[in-house]
Design a protein that fits this description.
Length: about 475
């Protein structure tokens, strides 16, 4: 790393990170040009952002609002997205300093970058994150941690070995309503939790709104097509759906380690979620939110289910959209493993109206439910206000006012974030294992400590996926 404070120490050179670590949150030095109180340029955390689709800009906006960091580099494979990233960042700072990269490895090779934000599709998480960890960058990484269990394990190992800070994009932890709900559970106010319902969306959602144009193109065909989930190879609809990639996108690079597939617009931007080659459907898209909160309330950030049984309905495996449209996963957390007083059953469901969207813990003495737009509980006294009355808060959970701010604070203090990598890994595991159970059609036994599926070689094989050359996860 570049010696940003060279000359300040006659001994070993002091890096920016060493300096921030030593100085902690008090590293606020005289104002730069931007405003009173802003740390001088040499003492801001330097950031690179990778991925400028839906979530990249949202995260970046939050970092741009923080005085003590400076975004100095942006990366995307799509030239239009990359230009939008650089323009947004340079406009905010009123300069031309943000550099553009199409290859994340070049951005990560820069010694003067302290931390990065990763918001690329799930099939790219592991390669980018492990390389960044190897380069000792602190990482704000989007959920789910990765596309497979094996990739997640590789990320956890790389983060631990390199001693870097990780913040998962499970930002619900930084909202008061989720914090309050988790504290109600953790303080035993609903007694021993026996069951948790985690309600997620079902079906598919056309995020970028590209599907109507595709369906219009197919409207003259004799077979009525109403969704990309009905389009399979060898049909006229497929032949019409496949096109050349746009010139501004390096599509082969976009596919990266995933198996080679023809370009179909309806499964690239944002809609890559609905194709198991690149994403994990609604289950994996949401498990890092409501599943994460379920674990938080129970204190299960370092543990997992011993039995997992999933059932789902799927389109054809080779359809343009092939991820489950409805699913139900039953997870059993054994008390001998979790050290919770009783066994806990967590039901994770999508497309089942009986299970409300959000997280609901049901205990021997009451219940509490939370979602982005709602909060309810068996005791009306808990519903009002942003937090519980202090006398009920014997156990106080980690507090973060803003998720990106919390990451920057941890980069300085070197203390864990509110959603560190081990937490992100465990929050996502029930989703991965539920999907594997659905795909093999049977209940799985999971060894929580060894992180292995027991006595099922076919299911175990699905913990990882082959990588397309030349990509390799080391
Ligand atoms: N925390 C949240 O609430 C939340 C919300 C939405 C998305 N996400 C997560 O954010 C990530 C991105 O999702 P999205 O909806 O923004 O996807 P997106 O398709 O809209 O954007 C991804 C961007 O990454 C770029 N990209 C792809 N591969 C790349 C590579 N190898 N190097 C550089 N750029 C690359 C694409 O060109 C695209 O611009 C996913 O992991 C997703 O699960 C999180």
């Amino acid at each position: 790393m570049k010696n940003l404070l060279s000359g300040s120490s006659p001994l070993a050179p002091l890096t920016r990170r060493d300096f921030l670590k030593a100085a902690g949150a008090a590293a606020i030095l005289p104002a730069g040009a931007w405003g009173a109180g802003r740390p001088s340029a040499s003492n801001r955390i330097t950031l690179g952002v990778i991925g400028w689709g839906m979530m990249g800009p949202a995260n970046t906006k939050a970092f741009l609002a923080e005085d003590d960091c400076q975004i100095v580099a942006a990366c995307d494979l799509h030239t239009g997205h990359l230009q939008a990233a650089v323009d947004t960042i340079n406009t905010r700072y009123g300069n031309q300093d943000c550099k553009a990269y199409r290859d994340y490895r070049e951005l990560l090779a820069r010694d003067d970058i302290d931390a990065i934000m990763i918001a690329v599709p799930d099939h790219w998480h592991a390669l980018v994150a492990t390389e960044a960890a190897r380069r000792k960058k602190d990482i704000y990484g989007e959920k789910p941690l990765a596309r497979t269990v094996h990739e997640q394990q590789a990320i956890v190992k790389a983060v631990q070995q390199n001693g870097i800070i990780w913040q998962a994009g499970s930002w619900q932890r930084s909202l008061p309503s989720f914090h309050k709900a988790a504290e109600i559970v953790r303080n035993g106010l609903i007694g021993n939790v026996v069951r948790v319902e985690v309600g997620l969306p079902g079906g598919h959602h056309d995020f970028p709104g590209t599907v109507p144009a595709l369906l219009a193109k197919l409207s003259s065909l004799p077979d009525k097509i109403t969704s990309p989930a009905q389009i399979v190879p060898g049909t006229p609809a497929w032949d019409l759906a496949v096109t050349e990639p746009p010139p501004e996108l390096d599509f082969d690079r976009w596919l990266g380690p995933s198996k080679s597939e023809p370009y179909i617009e309806a499964r690239v931007y944002q809609n890559w979620r609905w194709n198991y080659n690149t994403g994990g459907g609604q289950l994996l898209d949401w498990i890092g939110h409501h599943g994460d909160i379920a674990h938080w309330g129970l204190g299960f950030d370092q543990t997992g289910p011993s039995e997992i049984e999933g059932h789902g309905e799927f389109p054809a495996a080779n359809a343009v959209w092939n991820t489950a449209t409805t699913y139900m996963v039953e997870c059993k957390y054994r008390k001998e493993v979790t050290h919770y007083p009783v066994d806990v059953g967590i039901t994770i469901a999508g497309g089942h109206p009986a299970i409300m969207m959000g997280t609901k813990w049901i205990g021997t003495d009451g219940w509490v439910w939370v979602d982005r737009g709602g909060f309810d509980a068996s005791n009306p006294a808990w519903i009002k206000g942003d937090s519980l009355p202090d006398d009920l808060r014997k156990v106080k959970l980690y507090e973060s006012v803003e998720h990106r701010r919390n990451f920057l604070d941890s980069v300085k203090s070197r203390k864990p974030t509110i959603a560190p990598v081990e937490t992100a890994h465990h929050s996502t595991l029930p989703g991965h294992l539920g999907l594997i159970s659905m795909l093999v059609g049977r209940k799985l036994q999971w060894d929580v400590a060894q992180e292995k599926i027991l006595n099922d070689s076919a299911a175990s094989e699905l913990l990882s996926r082959p990588y397309r050359a030349p990509w390799q996860l080391s």
